[in-house]
Write a structure and sequence with these properties.
Keywords: Immunoglobulin domain. This protein has 343 residues and is mainly beta. 8% of the residues lie in helices and 45% in strands. The strands form six sheets. Strands 8, 9, 11, 12 and 13 form a five-stranded antiparallel beta sheet that branches. Strands 16, 17, 20, 21 and 22 form a five-stranded antiparallel beta sheet that branches. It is elongated.
C-alpha cells in the first residue's frame, strides 16, 4: 500500500508594530521600537527598516518555534536616539518569499495630549426643541490622518450624528466636534451613549461614555445685583449681575431681556457652572453690560433662568434704575410640550 503524499502548507506571517507607551519616552536618551512577526513557516524571512536604509541599532531575536502550531515567531528591534523619534515616522517591512508577501508597518511617536470630552445636551435643546444633542469634543490633535468618530448607544434606536470638519488652531493642533441627536426622553431615561475616537495620534481607540447622572434635582435661587455707583458715575457702561446658586444638575439656561426684547448673547457673559462648598450643588454668575445711558433711562432688565428642577422650568428676576431692587415681571418663553415626542 502506497503512503499518502506529503503536503507542504506555507503560512504567511502576521506583523505587529511595537512602540513605547505614551509618555514613557525620555527625549534625552534612546528609544526602542520593534516589529513582531508571528505565525509563519520556517522559510527565509527578511525584515528591513526604512527600505534597508537603516542598518545600525537593529537587534533580531528568534525565530522561535511554537510547539502548539509548528509556526515561528521573530522580532526585530530598532534603537535610536529619542530626539530622532520625535516627529519622524519609521517603517518596518517584512518580506516572505515563500508566500510572495510583503508587509509594511509604520511606527511613529505616540502623542498623548489628545483629549476626548463627551458633553451633555443643553437645557435649551432639551426643553425648547425636545432634542438632546450630545457632543463629542476631540481636541489637541497633531494630525487628522486616519481620524474617525463613531457613536453607539445602550439601547436600540437611531444614530443620527454630524461630525464637523477639523478646525486648525494657532498652536498647530486640531479639534473636531461630533454631535449625536436623540430624543430628549432617551437622555432623561439615563440611557448610555458612547463615542469612540480613532486617530493616528492614538495607539488604540479611545471610548468615552456619557449619560444623565443620578441625583435629586435642586432648583436654583436667583439674585440680581444692580450696577455699582462708581460705574454709573463714569457714565460709560453699566454692569448688571445675575447670581444663580444652589442648583443640581449643572445644566442650566440663562437669557437676558430688555423690556420684552431678548438681548443677544454677545452682550452678556456666563461663567461656567461651579460647585458650591457642599460639593453637591452648583452656582454661576451672568454679567450683562449695557450703555450707562440705557440704565439711566429707566429700562427694565430681566434675567431669565431655566432649570429642570423649577416648577415651570423657568423663573426670572427683573430690575430697573427707579427701584434698584429685583422684582418679578411676567415674561413668556415658549417651551416645547414636555409630553411631546420626537419619534
Amino acid at each position: 500500500m502506497r503512503g499518502l503524499p506529503y503536503l507542504s502548507v506555507t503560512s504567511a506571517p502576521s506583523v505587529f508594530p511595537l512602540i513605547p507607551c505614551c509618555g514613557n519616552v525620555d527625549f534625552e536618551n534612546s528609544v526602542t521600537m520593534g516589529c513582531l512577526v508571528t505565525g509563519y513557516m520556517a522559510d527565509p524571512l527578511e525584515i528591513q527598516w526604512n527600505d534597508g536604509s537603516i542598518t545600525t541599532g537593529i537587534k533580531t531575536m528568534g525565530p522561535v518555534l511554537s510547539a502548539a502550531d509548528g509556526l515561528y515567531t521573530l522580532s526585530s528591534q530598532l534603537t535610536i536616539l529619542a530626539s530622532e523619534w520625535k516627529n519622524t515616522t519609521y517603517r518596518c517591512k517584512v518580506v516572505h518569499n515563500s508566500t510572495n508577501t510583503k508587509q509594511e508597518k509604520s511606527l511613529k511617536e505616540c502623542y498623548d495630549n489628545l483629549q476626548v470630552h463627551p458633553l451633555p445636551p443643553t437645557f435649551h435643546d432639551l426643553y425648547f426643541s425636545r432634542i438632546a444633542k450630545i457632543t463629542c469634543l476631540v481636541s489637541s490633535m497633531k494630525t487628522t490622518e486616519n481620524f474617525n468618530i463613531a457613536w453607539e448607544r445602550e439601547k436600540e434606536g437611531k444614530l443620527e450624528f454630524v461630525t464637523e470638519d477639523p478646525v486648525l488652531h494657532d498652536n498647530g493642533t486640531y479639534s473636531v466636534v461630533s454631535v449625536l441627536s436623540v430624543c430628549a426622553e432617551d437622555w432623561e431615561s439615563r440611557e448610555k451613549f458612547s463615542c469612540t475616537v480613532r486617530s493616528q495620534d492614538l495607539p488604540s481607540p479611545v471610548k468615552k461614555t456619557i449619560f444623565k447622572q443620578n441625583g435629586t434635582p435642586k432648583a436654583p435661587d436667583v439674585y440680581l445685583l444692580p450696577p455699582s455707583p462708581q460705574e454709573i458715575l463714569q457714565q460709560e457702561v453699566a454692569t448688571i449681575t445675575c447670581y444663580i446658586k444652589g442648583f443640581y444638575p449643572k445644566e442650566i439656561f440663562v437669557q437676558w431681556m430688555q423690556g420684552s426684547a431678548s438681548i443677544s448673547e454677545d452682550k452678556f457673559v456666563n461663567t461656567v457652572a461651579m460647585k458650591n462648598d457642599d460639593e453637591q450643588t452648583y452656582f454661576l454668575y451672568s454679567k450683562l453690560t449695557i450703555p450707562a445711558a440705557h440704565w439711566n433711562q429707566g429700562n427694565t432688565y430681566t434675567c431669565i433662568v431655566g432649570h429642570e428642577a423649577l416648577p415651570l422650568y423657568i423663573t426670572q428676576q427683573s430690575i430697573d434704575k427707579s427701584s434698584g431692587k429685583p422684582s418679578h415681571v411676567n415674561v413668556t418663553l415658549v417651551l416645547s410640550d414636555a409630553a411631546s415626542t420626537c419619534y
